[in-house]
Amino acid sequence: MTPDRAAGLTDTARALAGGEVSSRTLVERTLARIEASQGVLNAFRVVRAEAALAEAEAADRELASGVRRPLLGVPVAVKDDMDVAGEPTAFGCAGVYPPVAEDGEAVRRLRAAGAVIVGKTNTCELGQWPFTEGPAFGATRNPWSTGHTPGGSSGGSAAAVAAGLVPAALGSDGAGSVRIPASWTHLIGVKPQRGRISTWPRGESFQGITVNGTLARTVADAALLLDAAAGNHAHDPHRPPAVDASAAVRRDPGRLRIALSLKPPFTAVAARLRPEVRARVLELAEKLAGLGHTVEEADPPYGQIGLTFVPRATAGIAEWVADAPFPALLDRRTRDAARLGRLLGGAPLRAARRAETVLHRRVGAFFAGYDVVLAPTTAAPPPRIGAMLELSGFATDRAMIAACPYAWPWNVLGWPGVNVPAGFAPGGLPVGAQLLGPAHSEPLLLSLAAQLEAELRWHERWPSEAVADSPA
């Protein structure tokens, strides 16, 4: 393992268990990488240097005594919407936030698996946008091209993993916020089934559309982190049956019926798939066909699914804003979204929640004919830093939908999706594709992603091979 770049999560855990390296050494290297990169990439909001070193020393004592846990001594990062005891949870907002008393359930489970939490990664304000910028912390930059965003809202986690600062990280996904930055930084991004990884202390984050997920360079690493973080708090409203994600990675997916869906779901704003992204997704479709799968163009019957998303998303923003200690410091777009959420929080929200059952039935029927949907993750490569930062709320929504119209329906459905790298647009900017499945289909999606990875070896390419600041 080289000190200038993190080894993968699986390899790191194996090296620790085998006594090849100490957790203290790994955490020291991780902290050095973070410090060296922070002035450029700005991936972290909180770095837990002293606490992480103490936790690493404790892990080393356990390892020396023969204790073995899946991630014992492995440094990882989490997004700054997750509670880590003793640290603030600002969720991209300005102001000095107080430290929280307890770990959130996902973090508690990572610790139970032995992980060392080295820090909390940057996210845009309340996770609303597909960029990670704001007055609270500045701009987080894409390791593949520092003039471009890594995406959002889990942009800090994606930048940290893509640059090799940490082997893997947790993010959250409310409208593609794991999958979008994964696609724009050449990573695996897993949006699991709703409830797979607890969002406690909020039983439902953003009215159930937001879930916690994993970002890593390989499918096996993303699955290992998913297995470590998965599980529920006693009061979670959604408790899906357990899956063994790591075992699924080692299985052949069999021959599958794959629907290639290039048409964006209906929104009130026009969205067009950019030719350079379309070409990369079509190449993936050809690769899948070459692996023996049946691939044909077909679009899920989304209908007016967007009408159910807006009340849930804006009501969720209103809930977070109500808890914000410094509401006057919030972005005007956040305050406007919260105002809309309060207006829609009654009958429209109840209707949107009821519609989910109908959508499950209608879109679920589509999976009688297909096993998996292959779709673009975004319609465009990553935009430049600042492209959306100063826009009005309406203009931000238009730009956001134009760039990212594909991911959010699976948040309404609550079903799993996995971003896989699809290659690069001209200029070296990464783009991705989604593998989407019905309820509880993480094992199938991960098995298929692993089959693709074995052929395409996307994890062998690092940002250092790309142009430092490619043109727009």
UniProtKB/TrEMBL annotation:
This is Amidase. Signal peptide: none annotated. Keywords: Hydrolase. It comes from Streptomyces achromogenes. NCBIfam families: PRK06061.1. Residues 26-446 form the Amidase domain. Transmembrane segments: none annotated. Its EC number is 3.5.1.4. Belongs to the amidase family. One of its GO terms (molecular function) is amidase activity. The keyword Hydrolase applies.
